Amino acid sequence: MILLPHVLALLLLAAPVPGDPAPRHALPDGMESAPWDAFWVDQCKERLEAAGMTEGYYFSPHNRLQSRRITRTETIYCHVPQAVVWSRGPTGARYGGFTMVNCAMALAMARFEVIAQEEARKVFGDALEAPITYITHVGTYNCRTLRLKSEKQSQHSFGNGIDITGFYVRGYGAIEIQRHWTARWPALQKGSLFLHNLVARLRAEQVFTNILDPTWDGYHANHLHIDLAPTSDGLPSVALEKAKASPVSASAPPREGAGRAAAAPVEIPFVGPEAWLVREAHGGNPATPPLAPRP
Fold first, then answer.
1. Whole domain around residue 251: which residue ranges?
2. Where is 239: in which H helix or E strand?
3. Is residue 257 part of a domain?
4. 133-187 pLDDT, tens digit each
5. 287 in a domain, yes or no?
6. What's this model's pTM, rounded to 2 decimal places?
7. Helix, strand or coil for residue 84?
């Protein structure tokens, strides 16, 4: 009996077995096509393994379909296809909170994490291969509509978005979006530089469809919303197609800086205020936000 707590501790620390992705869910009565079909990834498990995800995740076996009545006459349906429950990414960074995303989003997040580590090395030094040890967020799956456009479902309804609130960098400490995005004193400048460089590169490489930072609106003051919405300004999302076409082979490209000079920092072109005025929250394509503060 004395050994029981130690056995339980070992069981809790044991890595979950990934299993296999859940099959396609049957459509609700009366629905001819499902919005979550856009996120289906062929050979999902193989692509995740090629992206470095050999442990630290598992496929949810529940394959849940949730319905939610939003008005007296309207019901929305929410589902996470090939749901991936994620605790640790390909570089070893752990995620705070319950993290469940669809397979396409998981593939994009694997790339996101690699880029975050590379940008952290540029700012905080390259003594460590993976300086980021922890990534915090305030949610992935949430069956709801958009806050400002109640006629449209949120990407969170499909496990297709995550709201990142911060990072923990070994040797530096916590970097919080709300505190570090605008560096109000010198001690925050490195953290702010890391966040801005990270967002700039994610946009330049089109890792996600939408990347909403604290300059977007008050709702995003404390986090970065990133998603893989199927369309951007009415056009198919390049980011989504890139994620779904991730390599199936286990051979990965060399990390940035290995055997060659690091890429120069990305500069984001200025986009005037008029362009922002015609974009509605989560409905447009905030891929190239202005460098100057919005009015």
1. 4-20+31-268
2. helix 238-244
3. yes
4. 999 999 999 999 987 777 789 999 999 999 999 999 999 999 999 999 999 899 9
5. no
6. 0.80
7. strand
